[in-house]
Amino acid sequence: MKFSVTNHKVRNLSRISKVANILIQNGFEDFVVSTGLNRFLPDGYKSNADKPSESLNRWQRIRAAIEQLGPTMIKFANYLSCRPDILPQQLLTEFASMQTGVEPFGKSVAIKIFEQATKLSVDKVFSYFDNYSFFCEGYGCSFRAKLLTGEDVAVKVLMPNAKTVVLTDLTLIRDFVSLTESYLISIGIHRPLEIVDMFEDSILPQLDFRNEADMIRRFAMAYQKKSGLVVPQVFSRFTTEQTIVTEYFNAVDAADSFEFTSWGINRKSTADNFLKIFVSGLLETGVFHCSPSTSIVAVLPDGRIALSDFSYTEMLTSEQRSYLCDVVAALSTRNSRVLSESLRKLAVGGEIDDYQIFRNEIQRLADDLAYLADDVFFMRQFSFGISRIAYSQKLSLPREVLEAFSALASAESVAREIYPKVSVPELFKPYGTKLFLEKFTPDKVKSRVSQNLSQAADLLETSPLELSVILKKLRHGKLTANHKVIGLGFLIKKLDTAVNKLVYAIIIAALIIGSSMLMLSDSGIYKILGFPLASIIGYALALVLAISLLTYTVRNRFSNKENIDS
User: Fold this and answer.
1) Are 345 and 362 in contact (CB under 8 A)?
2) Full DSSP string of 115-157
3) For residues 311 and 261, is the Cβ–Cβ distance under 8 A?
4) β-sheet bridge partners, residue 157
């Protein structure tokens, strides 16, 4: 089946042609033809690529094609890895394992960008600047350095031409999705351009390190009471769109568990501590890292947790955080009513056609999670299950909520890397009970009462205004109403039958009364056997009409009874 290309103005024909070429090289010529992308290839084009390896399945070939398209495409695939509602499980697995780091660049490039961005000479800022980057993530590389004032710092520099590359790639993604929109919708991916918009909203802030600096400060304020997490200090005078300088910690990646074990740190306590900090921090403050990984989560010699990168962070609103707390509390107690109601309130669009079916699906998910094997990732199953239910019920969840679910799943993966036997449900049970009890504290009750009273006050305030608008339209004859009467035909038929019977009865009565009055008359009227002929005819007509009316009534009653019985 061939789908027509969406009527869309392509802004970069050469890039679209390159995408089509890469797809064909990886064995997706059928997709290129089906979507009409082959029209962007040169006339007489023939691929000289070798046949794709038979050892690679379809999902691995998709991954290989995306890796050839550059870092933004890889980030887009990684972003889609938390969307089980639109992608098959095999593809999610491939996307989730893709590395999104940029190619490292050297000291000379970093110094040039730093000096251009800050208008400061490196020699007048640092006493030492490392030759090689120790960490590359997102679109930046970090170098270890030492300030002239003595502080050990990490200098993060945006890769050269990052904004140009990202904006070009975003244009390419949007062009590609627009061109293949009808095909994507036909295979069950609804509103594909909306997905691109959400990805764009999440990636563009990463191109300005001032956003990261602001989020680090938010983390420091939100987690100041979390003794197990350390947040780096930001040196504001060196923070620009392309550079950020933060405190450097001597730590090892969470993946290097044997390293911090040699320091005398217990792996199980480290995993439990990290997961407890991440889950409680997200639910209590709403500030969280969207994609924690073993390369980002680091362990200090004293056992505290540090994050190496804050570029991909998000914050929930207080209302979203409240409903998410209800979800966790309901999940630990398998309360489908609270769980389904909280999920419905989290949604920003869509109407549930059958609430009982929706609640049954939620209950089935909660029951399945309660009996998962120990080696199954609890939060990943929960996140995927919630996304699928929301998709089937046509509920649109906010981007921040979807990222929170994905972040919880990623945090569980990190904890499992540190200590494979860590248990999320065991963490959720006491925390769920705590959240449930906190709902009935005086402050929480006062807050809910205040919120309800505020909503009622808003209703009372707006209702008179809306009522005045209605009355004004009514006064000027601009208010109209549409009525649809159901069963009117049956009513008219019954009225018609009743009127006919009444007319028959009136005629019969008139004939009988008129014939009886003629019988009493002594005027010269022609008589037969002493009875007026007119009276005999009147009585006869009245008798015929009465028999007809009686027969119709009896037949109609039996007919209605048979219809009711059947």
Assistant:
1) no
2) HHHH---GGGTEEEEEEEEEEEETTEEEEEEEETTS-EEEEEE
3) no
4) 141, 243
pLDDT at 1 over 50: no
Q: What crossing angle do the helices spanning 267-285 and 399-418 adopt, rounded to 10°?
A: 170
* Contact between 91 and 62 (Cβ < 8 Å): yes
pLDDT at 300 exceeding the cut of 70 = yes
d(CA 341, CA 244): 42
Residues 6+ apart with CB under 8 A from 322: none
Q: Looking at the DSSP assignment, which residues form a beta bridge with residue 136?
A: 141
Query: Which token pair is 540?
Result: 């006869």
Residue 36 per-residue DSSP state: T
Q: Among 6-10, 109-113, 499-503, 536-540, where is mean pLDDT lowest? A: 6-10
Give CA–CA dist 353/348, Å, rounded: 16
Bridge partners of 293, per DSSP, are none
| Contact in structure between 312 and 199 (CB atoms under 8 Å) | no
Q: How far apart are CA 32 and CA 20, in angstroms?
A: 6
Neighbours of 290 (CB within 10 A): 19
- Angle of the 71-80 helix axis to the 89-96 helix axis, nearest 10: 130
Q: Which of 162, 157, 160, 110 lies closest to 131 in space, CA to CA?
A: 110
Closest CA to 270 of 233, 231, 301: 301
pLDDT band at 7 (very low <50, low <70, confident <90, very high): very low
Report how far apart, in Å, the C-alpha atoms of 178 and of each of 23, 34, 38 are. 17, 14, 15
What φ, ψ does residue 133 adopt, rounded to 5°? Answer: -75, 140
Q: What is the pTM of this model?
A: 0.67
**DSSP conformation class of 312:** S
Confidence band, pLDDT 50/70/90 cuts, at residue 548? confident
Going 511 to 512 to 518 to 519, the CA torsion angle's sign is positive
Tell me the β-bridge partners of 147: 126
Phi, psi torsion values for 254, nearest 5 degrees: -60, -25
Res. 266: pLDDT tops 90: no
User: Is residue 326 a contact partner of residue 342, using CB atoms and an 8 Å limit?
Assistant: yes
Q: What is the pLDDT of residues 442-456, one digit of tens each?
A: 666 666 566 666 656
Chain segment 176-189, per-residue pLDDT in tens:
888 788 877 776 67
DSSP 8-state class, residue 375: T
Residue 368: its H or E element = helix 355-370
pLDDT score at 3: 40
Among 18, 21, 20, 12, which Cα is nearest to 171's? Answer: 12
Exposure b/e, 472-493, CB count within 10 A at least 16 = b: eeeeeeeeeeeeeeeeeeeeee
- Are the CB atoms for 549 and 504 separated by under 8 Å? yes
Instruction: Please enumerate, as own/partner, the contacts of 467-475 that have beta carbons within 8 Å and a separation of 24 or more.
Output: none
If you search the block for the tokens 């989730």, which residue do you land on?
Answer: 96
Continuous H helices in 371-441: 378-392, 399-418, 424-438
